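Researcher: Good morning. I'm working through a list of sequences from a screen, and I'd like to move beyond sequence-only analysis. For each chain I'm collecting a predicted structure so we can compare shapes side by side. This is the next one on the list. No need for commentary yet; just the structure.
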Amino acid sequence: MEKDPKLRLRDIGDAAKLLDFSPESPELNLDVRKRPRQWVPWTAAAVALGLALSLVWIRVRETGPSPERVQFQIFPRDQYRLGGFQVSPDGRQVAFVETDGRGVGRLQLRALDSLETRVLAEQSTAVLFWSPDSKYVAFMTDRRLRKVDIFGGGPQTITDVAFAPRGGAWSRNGTILLGGTQGLWSVPDRGGSLSQVTAIDFERQENSHAFPSFLPDGRRFLYLRRSTESDNSGIYLGDLNARPGEHTAQRLVATETGAAVSNGHLLFLREDILVAQPFDVEAGVLTGEAMTIVEPVGSVLSIGLGLFSVSDSGTLVYRTGRTTQTRPVWFERPGIKSSPIAEPGDYGELALSRDGSRLALTHRGRTWDIEVVDLARGSSMRLTFDGANESNPVWSPDKKQVAFFSSQKDSQGIHVKASDGTRDEEILISSGSNSAPNDWSPDGNYLLYTRVDPKTAADLWLFSVKDRKSKPFLATKASEGQGQISNDGRFVAYTSDQSGRAEIYVRTFPDGEGPWQVSRGGGVEPRWRGDDKELFFRVLNNRPPAAVEVFRDPIFRVGPPQMWFNSTELASFLGAGGVTRNPRWAPTPDGKRIIAVMQENQEILSPLTVVTHWQTGSRK
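Model: Good morning. Structure tokens for this chain:
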């Protein structure tokens, strides 16, 4: 930013004229033909000097003066927070998500030569990207990929998406790419079904292919491959004509976040420094040394998201910030925060044993691993050490075992291990990256788990511990997941979007009769009280958790939802992040306390910083 306040731009309006600056602007070009020609009979030496100077003048005229670099910021409205953002390919507009206090995101549009902001869609997640002609914005909401014309008209659905995308890209040939933990998938921009483009390479310990961006030919693309092996994480080149397992394994650059191409350079993060390295687009290779553009630039390392976006024309938008730490914390009913359970770090899903005495949770160090906590003694131990990512721990009813998902390259799927760590883990279900254990039946006979097919959405399956066989429990066109078996073993509560949005339903167990709808205004992540007389769940839009009274005789029915924990702070605790992820909270068996993973540090609420002609003033 300009250090002299007199020279600093106050807002976007001050920069409007500068945004249209280009070497071809008629008022800025100098035309030597308008100058009067003078002829003086110089000597031969003088003539030679004149010729040399004229060549220099012609060179200056061809290249024009360097475009001026302009920088300003876009702030959210009061009581709102900024989410995802993307600058248009032509560099003239920024689409971004603004989230209110309830967690509801609205898709907004700001033209860089205007002070006005327009609403494009009333609901949107952080995933958004532009059409190559800068006329449409694609975005995710309600598990659907949609597009909206920025010049008018309502959102149009492109396709249903069963997984949580990590970035997207739109080619000039009409193909859309979506990233995620199951590789890259494509869909025509006019609508249709998803087709697999890349496949996760388990031999390389990969766990996601994310944040794609197309090259100008509309066929080749760059994308982020993430792996627990640091030598394998980075930016790679893909091709729509290649089969899922045939894309090159030649890494372009090592990084933990996505990258983009602009003005013949590849832009990517080195920690929190945004750098640009010369890139031969035709050959698909780097050709020179990297230079620093700006620092610091924020990121969300848990998914590989760099908080920057750049246009073909050289407009850069970025945010500063840092990844916040989290930790599990106790809350007393009706919402009084009491004591933390662990040191600050990066924590994921958790599960209480059915008697409430022990906690299993995921903790990220070099990789995501399972830890076991004895809540009475306050002691903890790390359970997994295999160098792979583990998630979604589930207790056996006798507390002797913990089931979890593991990304081990030779045996990816659902594993089980003795909770005291005395025996090696074993694989129960070999399923690739498309399954997650949800609950273990009270009699120990069944493991309930979610299984995902990107084409048919998520389904609930049962694994027989005795027979070592799996069968569907509930498989429909809707997405079902986060199943929880009641403590008497008679019912299953689960999340489904069969109505068009996520709600809580109950069916009988193990025959699956029903369903009975529990939530009415949106709900996810159900949890039973120890005596099954209450069912807890998270209400959508970051409102505090709700509870319903459960009646089962003579027929199953529930009372109206009531606020369970009246706490503004608890309303913002971290959600699961999708139907295939277990909750990051759990109630005690008596329902009087809750343990939840909370943000330890408040996020830096930085605005969007806009920089025109980023290449001007960059340094090596």
